[in-house]
Amino acid sequence: MLLAFSAGIRGLLFGYDTGVISGASLYIRDDFEAVEKHTWLQETIVSMAVAGAIIGGAFGGWMNDKFGRKKSILFADILFITGSLVMALVLNPWVIIVGRIFVGLGVGIVSMTSPLYIFEASPARIRGALVSTNGLLLTGGQFLSYLINLAFAKTRGNWRWMLGVAGVSPLVQFILMCFLPESSRWLYRQETEGSMGDGVFSKLKSAWSNKVVRRGLYAGITVQVAQQFVGINTVMYYSPTIMQLAGFASNRTALALSLITTCLNSFGTILSMLFVDRFGRRRLMIVSMIGIISCLIVLSIMFFQASVHTPPYKPGECLTVDTVTRGTCRAQNRTWYTYGCPSKFGIFTVLHLGLYILSYAPGIGTVPWIVNSDIYPLRFRGTGGGIAVVSNWNLIVSETFLTLTETLGSAGRFLLFAGFSTVGLVAIFFLVLETKGEGARKRI
What we know:
This protein has a single domain (2-194, 203-443), classed as MFS general substrate transporter like domains (Growth Hormone, Chain: A), CATH 1.20.1250. It contains 22 helices and no strands. The protein has helices spanning 2-31, 33-37, 39-67, 69-88, 93-121, 127-152, 158-164, 168-177, 184-193, 200-209, 211-229, 232-237, 239-245, 251-279, 281-308, 323-331, 346-360, 367-374, 381-392, 395-399, 401-431, 440-443.
């Protein structure tokens, strides 16, 4: 349990990062006019952590096989601490991007290492539940990030504190990991087959030429891609912005409502821990995807109705977006609507967003990490997991959220994700076998 908690702090790191940037970005755009004027710059600040995670995930598998699980986690912690300090001390938005890349590199490495490390130390009967602690800490990190965002919302240098505090949890993990052993299965692999001296590309070639590994990759990549294309990162990275699109203009109100999604995410992860070893991985993912598709369709309808039933405009209500006008408005204690308009559908949108999270968390939210820890032979476990992680860190989704909103509208964006989710459900049904129990790998 100590090992699962210590390694699972990886989830806390990732969860805090996704939650904190969604709140901090509201204040970053207030401090930097260029960020407010250029949608692509705000998207880049948010998504560069994903770009770093792609690179980190690509080399994380090789690092795991070459240097072991423990050293990989320690190295990722150093990267995460560095990135947090850089973001907290920046003077312009471009340096924030550099810090986000450092954080992403750390997240990419540890995102596949921690579940693997926990998996290799867990007995089969509770293996799924212990790996799910990683997901529970992830949702806990998201909840913590919104609390911290609210705490620093009216503090001078608010977003700097929000981003800087992110360096605390990797420091705690680094200290705890120093007292934990290396994975016994990795040590066994070292002892029986010698040093894993293969380079990255030769390792990839060997993995792909192995029929068992290749079949596992079909399943592993499928579940990781499906996890991203249900649109979850847009919800987690831009949750306060979505709340504003639904008609809640205040930054603090949007942050407070975002706490609902993180609480439900944590509750859903607990459900996964209770049922994943009992009902199986594949069944949970299929039920989860059906619920997600239903919620996305309803959300699309809700946002469309909200756009149709916005209050009628009056002369002077459509104002030029600039710092002077916005400052004058707020100085008179008026509400400044940058995204969306007040609507009677806003509260129903928040409720269905909660149902979406409840559908996501117990299944497709946590199970892909369990599956990818389970389906590869020991020799290729790090490489296979690394390839799957790269496919999980999808830059397209987070980089295009605001652009898609401007182009398709909120309703069209959610409908698009419903279409992607339907494709993901079909792929999971045909490509993913059950991996519950000791004999699962024989079936694969």
